[in-house]
Amino acid sequence: LDPVPGADGANGVLTSKHSAVLHRHLDHEFLVLDQAKGNYLLLEDGRKIIDASGGAAVGSIGWGNERVALAVAKQVLAAPYCATIFFTTIPQEELAKELIAGTGGDMARAYIVNSGSEAMEAALKLARQYYLEIGQPQRSRFISRERSYHGITLGALAVGGHKARRAKFEPLLMDNVSQVSPCFAFRGKAAGESDTDYVHRLAVELDDEFQRVGPETVCAFVAEPVVGAALGCATAVAGYFKAVKAICEKHGALLILDEVMCGMGRTGTLHAWQQEGVVPDIQTIGKALSGGYQAVAGVLVNQRVVGALEKGTSAFVHGHTYQGHPAGCAAALEVQRIIREEGLLENVRQMGDLLEKRLRAQLAGHPNVGDIRGRGLFWGVELVADKASMTPFPDADHVCMEICELGLDEKYSILVYPGGGSVDGIRGDHIILAPAFNIKPDEIETIAATVARL
Ligand code: PLP
User: Fewer CB within 10 Å, N side or C side of the chain?
Assistant: First the structure.
């Protein structure tokens, strides 16, 4: 390993002086990752850590895959960059074809960018431009949900409901966004309330919000089908997405689903919306798309929106220097082919069932585990100070981060991902488990047993 600036020399630990300076608020020491193989991370000091969260729910085929490495190398040697204003490339076209086919033709085009936040920016602008092209310029508002996370750039932050991440930047955020309650049964459903009544209550709240702001002013409703970082793998109650889609249709607004974290197979189907019985108009994807081999994200757009832009006055007024990056597209294409050819979605479903069983068996009785929730290989464990009252830990405790740091201690050597914190003023600590789609049963057993020891 080349010398790392800021390394203090002891156990290869960084002091966060240089490369990690922007992470100073995380007052932990940084471990030096040397290699990643399969579902293990190897540190510079020789320690081996099981990767139970695919990094940040990114890894979808595990680490060190030669097929992907070769595809990227081949593309870099063939044509490393492409000015997408004039050119496309075979990997970009093949990737788009693969992605559209994966929606069963429900989506019409794929737009490839480099991060989930960029994908969200593009999604919001596409929605706005759609309404301009169809002669409804008064539509410029978005309705999203509290306690959500859609990315860190200003537009994405504005639709996000993560108050802690928004706080310092509030004056910079678009003010044409309003928010409704998320579908979060653990904290949102009243005692004795049926799923049907809960869905009805949330649907009425959304409909009222449309009425309050003026239904003719709304571009889109924005939501994550399974809420990742902000709520810890919170799945919606059955029927919720059908209800919100119906309200969007009633008011002529688009449905934007953010599948950056929960999509591309993470929940057991290629797209999480495929389990909800709805099809979005615009969808964002990222993370598992390239499995971490390159920085790739994207937007999938249906024919309604594509058709309007095709007939419209101008092309999509957007673009990034590195969008549709050939090496990124080559990586994502190879990862998606591996997932398809190796039938990994079936493994997500089977290993997801096993993980759920083991987590429930080993953790459900723990005095500080309030809830275990998720789908496929996307599981959140909500930590509470008091189980009887489900009282969260105080803000200052940073419990989810402490548990994740503890996992990295050599006694446990497991990477789990932190989530929550003080989101929207409501405390919620959870750890996220999101291993790669080709995880094996013995690795699931190790993960569940190790998490239970933390
Ligand atoms: N949307 C969701 C649901 C996410 O979880 C994230 C990142 O965690 C983003 C958007 C932003 O993606 P990125 O961090 O790649 O910009």
Answer: N
ipTM of the complex: 0.99
Interval between CA 151 and ligand 1 midpoint (Å): 5
CA gap 431, 297 in Å, rounded = 24
Q: How much distance in Å is there from the Cα of 77 to the middle of ligand 1?
A: 30
User: Final residue of a domain: which of 302, 326, 341?
Assistant: 341
CB atoms near residue 127 (< 10 Å):
24
Check pocket membership of 224 for ligand 1, CB cut-off 6 A.
Answer: yes
Ligand 1 atom at minimal distance to the Cα of residue 115: 15
- Strands 417-423 and 109-113: what pairing? unpaired
Give Cα 255 to chain centroid, integer Å: 17
267 Cβ below 6 A of ligand 1: no
If one residue of 264, 282, 287, 378 were mutated to test the ligand 1 pocket, choosing by the most ligand atoms within 8 A of its CB, it would be: 287
Q: What is the pLDDT of residues 268-311, one digit of tens each?
A: 999 999 999 999 999 999 999 999 999 999 999 999 999 999 99
Task: Report the percent of the chain where pLDDT is more than 90.
Answer: 83
Domain region containing 373? 31-64+343-453
Give the total number of structural domains in the chain.
2
Domain boundary residue, one of 297, 322, 341:
341
Sheet holding 33-37, edge to edge: 33-37, 40-43, 48-51, 414-415
Residue closest via CA to ligand 1's atom 5 equals: 261
pLDDT digit string, tens, across residues 60-88 = 999 999 999 999 999 999 999 999 999 99
pLDDT of residue 420: 73
**Residue 24 confidence (pLDDT) above 50:** no
